[in-house]
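task queued by scheduler; priority normal; single chain, no ligands, no partner chains; default sampling; output format set to structure tokens
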Amino acid sequence: MDSEIELIQILSAIGILCIPILAAIPIRIIWKRYVGGAYQHEEYRRLLSLVINAGYSLSQFRDQLDEAARRRRIPKDRQKLIETDFLFPLKTPHFILLPSLFFTPLVLLFATPLFLLALPLLSLAEYILIRKGLLAYIIMQLQNISKWQLIHIPKPRHNQKDLRGDIVAFSKMLMTVYLGLFAWLIVHWIFRGLDYWVLILISAFSYLILVSILGVIKTAIDTEFVFADPAGTAIIPIERFFRELLEPLIGLGLLFLLIRDLTAIFREGGDLILFSLSILIVLFSATLVGIGVEVGHATRRRNSIHSKFSEKLIKSCEPRTYYFLREKGLIKFIEYGPTPIDPVERKNLRTNAPFSTIPEKMKNIDD
């Protein structure tokens, strides 16, 4: 009889944990059809791919793209949605988080205090990491240890003002959200046996510290500075370097911690169902906190953080600016000179760059 009860509890716990995953599958299918699954939508995506893969920005081809959308009878809102989804596609881990929006009234009880407490911590992290130059110092030391060289490569960027800001923010918050679950599982393991409310307080405090640091770093490193690795003949954007370093660590760590906690609770005769429900509450609460961090802080402070961080990097690492071009099947790497410290001058480098001139073969992309 006991073995049957244990089996039911195990299956129930696994079923609860699988709810977001199972819900993500139909939500993803519905999303793809909502964004645009018709033939004319796929044709428009082909034009977007043609422009981006050639190294240009959508704003450079705005008139042509608008005309192509009118020909295909794609409304302006749908066009904006398709472009946003093309540049910032949502993946399965994103759709796992979407069910949290259905439980917003309940989850807000946990998420709102966390977000309000995160704001002063985000300001403190920004002061230490950006204004005091700690992040720039870390990158300078990484450059010295790895023997890589920090360089600046202007690139034709899409104008995020022409995109759906809510989707852009949602696409960038994966690490912010799963970091909350990561903190909860670590605290639950180290301090297991304590009351659940004590565990929640400890994990919430740990999460706020981690998300404040990560939130500022994520916003800062989304720049045009890259690492050049001569020995490996590679160019590595700073943002991609940190993402590829942290995402596997958090992802594999979550899987390991989840399995370890489940097996430990089962051996100790704990309540697996309560543990599974706590996982969902933490995940959904962290989702709303992540949305708040991306929308309430990163979007509002992005320009200021980028400007100050870039200034610190230029002063400490003295990078040089290069143009990275692809033309007629040839890759060109053209040196411009020392990277300007003035943000307006750096912005002008994009508008005056060789890739700002559209070749004749690209003048009519819809023909």
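post-processing summary
- The first strand starts at residue 149 and ends at 152.
- The chain has 13 helices and five strands.
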